[in-house]
Amino acid sequence: MKRIIVCDSGLGGLNIAARFCNTEAPGLEACELIYFNAYPEAGMGFNKLPSSRSQEDLLQTILESMEKFSPDMCLIACNTLSIVYEKLAARYTPGFPVLGITGAALEGMYGALQKEPASSLLVLGTKTTVDSGLYIRRLTDRQIHPSRLASLACPGLATALESDPRAPETVGMIERCARAAAELLPGNIPVLHLALCCTHFEFAGDLWTEKFSRFFTGRINIVNPNSLMQTGTAAANCRYLSRIGFFPGARENMIRFFSGNAPMLACALEQAQADKNLFAFDSSVYKG
Q: What share of the chain is helix, strand, coil (3-state, %, to 5)?
């Protein structure tokens, strides 16, 4: 049986892992699924590291720590880590195949823009994802006019969504994103595609459409890369691994969120325990 690791810095990638947890889907090969939370320490995520090189070094350490599980594949279910991996791959190759989410995300965005030539697209993501300019650059390389494209970082939103997507503070953050987007983009867009380029953003559900519709008169369309990552396998069992414990309220929120559509995953979250030895981490790197 294949062993597949789904890796994210936090819990957003659970949205992708949940799509493996349908063992009754016809024609899919059974696999052992491991969810690997690459968040190194509370308050010390990848987006707070002082340099691109320090991000790459930490990701290399994490991938090396996966070797002991002998995976057949690692899916990097995280836009930030996928972008970091593209840089890291120039000097380091793990002993197993690695597939990032950026390819699926790009195809989803490009397809949406091609289908509706009068539409525009807003990339929503973490600071690392937006600062990289990767999606805008690759879409313009494919002859999408820059005037149809924009990007907006949503700092802190991923962590807030883990703990409670419907908390007033979280809802307020999404509304502030919509207000900032209205200042960034012209208001007469017939169709605005919101590209959710952080796996966590799926937890917000229809809040994206609700809040953005207050600032844009055209139709809001969601492009969700989480739904586009497929391997043709279904989980026969799964484990959740993390170096750190859950943020306050996050375990309960995630169990509640996945208990209906992915009970196997919800059970793994309920049984999970932090393991400080999952991968090596030196917090002094945050001092630059």
A: 45, 20, 35
The answer to whether 193 and 7 have CB atoms below 8 angstroms apart is no
pLDDT digits (tens, 9 = 90+) for 93-129: 999 999 999 999 999 999 999 999 999 999 999 999 9
The C-alpha angle 138, 143, 147, rounded to 5 degrees, equals 90
Label the pairing between strands 149-153 and 219-223. Answer: unpaired
- Between 156 and 230, where is the model more confident? 156
Written as six digits, the tokens of 82 are: 């996928």
Query: What pLDDT sits at residue 25?
Result: 63
**Within the chain, where are the H helices?**
14-17, 52-66, 79-88, 102-115, 127-132, 134-141, 157-163, 168-184, 207-212, 250-258, 263-271
Please give the Cα distance from 46 to 50 (Å, whole number): 9
pTM of the model: 0.92
- Is the separation of the CB atoms in 81 and 9 below 8 Å? yes
Query: What's the pLDDT score for residue 244?
Result: 96
Cα separation of 192 and 172, whole Å? 21
Percentage of the chain beyond pLDDT 90 is: 85
Q: Minimal CA–CA distance to 215: which of 176, 187, 174?
A: 187
